[in-house]
């Protein structure tokens, strides 16, 4: 065990008081930022870029003395995020779903990413059905189905000049959902992956909750038991990966190595859900024990605390994250900490930080253990600080009529990676929308505790992240759904046909379509990985964008 690993392992995580009991481990990347200066005082004079990144027009962003005036938005959440519930969201997902089914129904490959260049540019690259991302595209369909059933006012009702047949749309949408979720059912008994929550819950839990399909519930419960089979009491953790093979690491011995990753925090939700359905303390205990192990293993206390909290709120200990830890399966001792998808072993990979925010926030909602809430808030504070102290090159001047900058709240792919091109810094839009989902969960939890100031801070940050993401990363092509009368069945009974229609662009010249909703994600830019891809659309970025909108709807915020 390295000295660095030992220091972090022995750090007390009693963060309810806003501090740790010993000095945080020295992190070579900590000097690049401090949470304390996450929102620095406005300079005496600012550039157009600096003024605009606050979300105000340049002409309105400066006081008479040239200093920056912070915007206080009077519009509601919906007013800031009009594209979040636009017909384009449902239409783009629908278009891909129907197109793939024309070739293979049920599908045996699932959408993963959309490149911007190359022979397959702008079209979804499909991955094998057992790849860990297979659940997100069916989940996106179910997210749209949820809107159509529970929130019909946020489901498309008209298409340019014509009214839609909503009953026909809902019927066809349910057919798409069933077709895409059918192959997922066979995954419930898998014990070779820790990603059972990601694979199963987006579609099959949704199918149970929206349609009452008890078969889907049973498969969710089976999946939880499959995930629990990967738990080892000696390590007090669920094994994340069976192996890690890169140009830098070769870890393949199940008897000597036990890999855990930060992403796995988000799969614990499956164990809690099933545990309560089954009245199983065993499943619930596994989830909670694993969460405590991750807190001791992959969290990195940062030496500074936020000074941008609501008045009178006690300081919050900030945390960054490691991506991967290799434990001894016999003792749980930390052997090594590293990254597989981030820039460096001790850097903060943005999506890993986002997974951690959401995972610990979910864990608190199930357990009501304030330790997990404090950790989630500390992770959120660090994420926010890194957004607000990112280099000025992340700010992008928008186009007329807004003429304000955007992009500050779309995270860099790794907060510590060198920026190779300041004119186009590499980002990960998926990390932003995942973090935004976690921040909404924190808003929910803190509001219930009466901590409305901090709750409002996190909701505001979530909206800022998604607003910037939509402004900077939304693919330019727009689509709508349309219904028309079909040819009928020969007995005089007419059917209804659903079409996906492209909306002409304002400037003419539609250009090529782009299958994903969001652009500028980065799945993996680690220099030692054998498969790297970056600056693309990504299926779970789109899924968590839809899910973010649905979270707002469930909470009555839009």
Task: Present the secondary structure layout.
Blueprint (H helix, E strand, L loop, with lengths): L2 H7 L38 H5 L24 H4 L6 H17 L5 E6 L9 E5 L7 H15 L7 E2 L2 E2 L2 H16 L14 H16 L2 H15 L2 E2 L4 E2 L5 E2 L4 E2 L6 E4 L6 H10 L3 H17 L1 E7 L11 E5 L2 E4 L6 E5 L11 H18 L2 H19 L7 E2 L7 E2 L22 H20 L3 H22 L5 E7 L10 E7 L18 E4 L8 E6 H16 L4
Antiparallel strand pairs: 1-2, 1-19, 3-4, 5-6, 7-8, 9-12, 10-11, 12-13, 14-15, 16-17, 18-19
Helix pairs in contact: 4-5, 4-6, 5-6, 5-7, 5-15, 7-8, 8-9, 9-10, 11-12, 11-13, 12-13, 13-14, 13-15
Which features characterize this protein?
39% helix; alpha+beta; four-stranded antiparallel beta sheet; 14% strand; 19 strands; single chain; 558 residues; globular; Glycosyltransferase; disordered N terminus; three-stranded antiparallel beta sheet
Question: Could you explain the architecture of this structure?
Answer:
The protein is α+β, with helices and mostly antiparallel strands and 558 residues long. It has a single domain, classed as Glycosyltransferase. The chain is built from 15 helices and 19 strands. It has helices at 3-9, 48-52, 77-80, 87-103, 136-150, 166-181, 196-211, 214-228, 268-277, 281-297, 350-367, 370-388, 429-448, 452-473, 539-554, and strands at 109-114, 124-128, 158-159, 162-163, 231-232, 237-238, 244-245, 250-251, 258-261, 299-305, 317-321, 324-327, 334-338, 396-397, 405-406, 479-485, 496-502, 521-524, 533-538. The strands form 8 sheets. Strands 2-1-19-18 form a 4-stranded antiparallel beta sheet. It has a 3-stranded antiparallel beta sheet with strand order 9-12-13, with helices on one face. It is globular, with a radius of gyration of 23 Å. The chain starts with a helix and ends with a helix. 50% of the residues are buried. Residues 1-26 and 31-74 have low confidence and may be disordered.
């Amino acid at each position: 065990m390295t000295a660095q690993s030992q220091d972090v392992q022995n750090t007390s995580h009693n963060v309810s008081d806003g501090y740790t009991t010993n000095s945080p481990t020295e992190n070579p990347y900590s000097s690049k930022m401090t949470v304390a200066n996450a929102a620095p005082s406005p300079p005496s004079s600012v550039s157009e870029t600096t003024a605009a990144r606050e979300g105000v027009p340049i002409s309105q962003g400066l006081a008479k003395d040239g200093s920056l005036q912070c915007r206080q938005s009077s519009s509601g959440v919906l007013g800031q995020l009009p594209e979040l519930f636009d017909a384009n969201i449902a239409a783009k997902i629908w278009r891909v779903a129907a197109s793939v089914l024309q070739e293979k129904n049920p599908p045996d490959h699932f959408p993963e990413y959309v490149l911007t260049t190359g022979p397959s540019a702008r079209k979804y690259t499909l991955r094998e059905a057992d790849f860990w991302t297979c659940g997100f595209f069916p989940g996106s369909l179910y997210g749209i189905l949820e809107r159509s059933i529970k929130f019909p006012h946020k489901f498309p009702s008209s298409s340019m000049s014509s009214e839609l047949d909503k009953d026909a749309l809902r019927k066809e949408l349910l057919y798409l959902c069933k077709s895409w979720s059918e192959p997922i059912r066979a995954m419930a008994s898998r014990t070779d992956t820790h990603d059972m929550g990601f694979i199963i819950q987006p579609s099959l839990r949704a199918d149970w909750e929206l349609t009452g399909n008890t078969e889907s519930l049973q498969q969710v419960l089976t999946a939880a038991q499959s995930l629990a089979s990967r738990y080892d009491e000696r390590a007090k953790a669920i094994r994340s990966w069976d192996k890690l093979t890169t140009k830098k690491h070769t870890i393949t011995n199940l008897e000597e190595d036990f890999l855990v990753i930060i992403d796995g925090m988000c799969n614990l939700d499956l164990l809690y859900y099933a545990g309560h359905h089954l009245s199983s303390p065993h499943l619930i205990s596994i989830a909670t024990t694993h969460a405590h192990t991750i807190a001791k293993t992959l969290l990195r206390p940062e030496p500074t605390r936020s000074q941008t909290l609501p008045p009178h709120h006690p300081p919050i200990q900030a945390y960054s994250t490691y991506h991967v830890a290799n434990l001894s399966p016999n003792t749980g001792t930390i052997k090594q900490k590293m990254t597989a998808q981030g820039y460096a072993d001790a850097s903060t990979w943005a999506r890993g930080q986002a997974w951690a925010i959401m995972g610990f926030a979910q864990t608190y909602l199930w357990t009501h253990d304030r330790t997990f809430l404090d950790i989630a808030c500390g992770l959120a504070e660090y994420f926010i600080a890194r957004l607000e102290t990112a280099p000025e090159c992340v700010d992008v001047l928008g186009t007329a009529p807004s003429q304000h900058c955007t992009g500050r709240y779309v995270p860099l792919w790794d907060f510590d990676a060198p920026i190779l091109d300041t004119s186009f810094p590499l980002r990960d839009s998926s990390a932003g929308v995942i973090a935004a989902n976690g921040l909404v969960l924190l808003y929910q939890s803190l509001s219930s505790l009466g901590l409305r100031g901090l709750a409002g801070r996190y909701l505001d940050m979530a909206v800022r992240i998604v607003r910037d993401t939509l402004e900077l990363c939304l693919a330019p092509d727009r689509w709508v759904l349309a219904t028309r009368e079909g040819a009928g069945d020969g007995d005089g009974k007419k059917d209804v046909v659903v079409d996906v229609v492209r909306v002409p662009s304002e400037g003419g010249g539609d250009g090529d379509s782009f299958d994903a909703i969001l652009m500028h994600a980065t799945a993996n830019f680690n220099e030692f990985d054998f498969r790297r891809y970056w600056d693309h659309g990504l299926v779970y970025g789109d899924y968590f964008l839809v899910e973010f909108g649905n979270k707002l709807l469930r909470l009555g915020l839009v």
